[in-house]
Amino acid sequence: MSSTIFPGSTLGIIGINRNGVAMIAATKKAGFNVGVYVDHSQPDITKMADFTIDGAYNDKQKLTEFGEACDAIIYQTPNIDSTVIRFLGQYAAIPQGINGLEIVQDRLMERAFLDQININIAPYVTVVGLDDVYQSIDSIGYPALLKPIQRGIGEQSMMIKRSSDITRAADFIDTGTYLLESWIDHTSEYTLTAACTKDDVEIFPLAQLEYTEDRKLISVASPAKVNDDMLEEMQRIIKSVAASLQYTGVFSVNFYVTSTGTLYVKNIELGLTSIANVYDNTTNVDQYEQQLRASVGMPLHVIRQLQTALLMIIRNYQAIAIKRQWLLKNNWKFRFFNNSNTDDPEGILGFVWVTGDADLEALRNQVDDTEVWNKPLPTSDTEEASKSIDEEQEE
Fold first, then answer.
1. What is the pTM of this model?
2. Where is the ATP-grasp domain (predicted)?
3. Is residue 141 a contact partner of residue 182, using CB atoms and an 8 Å limit?
């Protein structure tokens, strides 16, 4: 970014989701005007913005209108094609840059980038059809994941557990190149989130993730406990990514840890995530303020841990059970979303932060005692296991 952007200027946001409400609020609180570009109307998210432009991502006339109305534009998630951001760059500053976006949107480029900076990732090969899968599976091993090279909204990955699964890949593989990657059998998953500028990197405390068997996020615990050597390696990795990615703003690196203590990098995520919402009530600065500070040229806030918390994901089918906790728990903080799709029982209704001084295990026991998250989804319909792996953290 060529210059600092001061309050009174207009910051545009594109690629917005439910976290956009908090990003808009943080930007308005700091004295900036906010413009939002969406490809479909989302009034519950955008109502706090000064203006909203609703148009397709290939509508150059509306994109031009948006770009000319903004002093700088950020993408809240990496789901906006980099060509759109490059086009907007003709009219407004793009503080986050485009290089990092192009890398994370292409799985092959991302893995080449991680290889280049000596980071441990799962073995993989590229395939373009069933014949390639049959020829490559022996070197990759079972189970394996078949993924499109290009990341995108709503995409899915296919799990191949045995040779008979490969024939079903014929319906999964479309035109283009795919990635066949070893599935890392792991015992734990972690996320490390940081904010970076050209001159500084500030790292949030480590977060541990818990998922259901079909890859629905249950909880985020922070600060997570790992041995000192592993934490140092995670911090080294995120600093290496920050130094090489040519990106300004908030980003995360997701990790697998195996039963033998081997650390693998799963992927890089740019922008604001539901996972990093755990810091809203655990640190002295959240992801939204750090993203704003990086975007407008302010120095990053030094991050300090204030308390321990579990961020629990509330889904629609848990609505009745959670109401009782609303009345009982004095150390729980709630956030509900007005735009939740109530027709989907697994749709996200909101978040709850279960907070305490230091003992994560005590917080987990408190959550378990409520039985809100112990009860299964009340439905008999399940998706095919072969398509149950949700590669992206955001839903």
1. 0.91
2. 111-296
3. yes
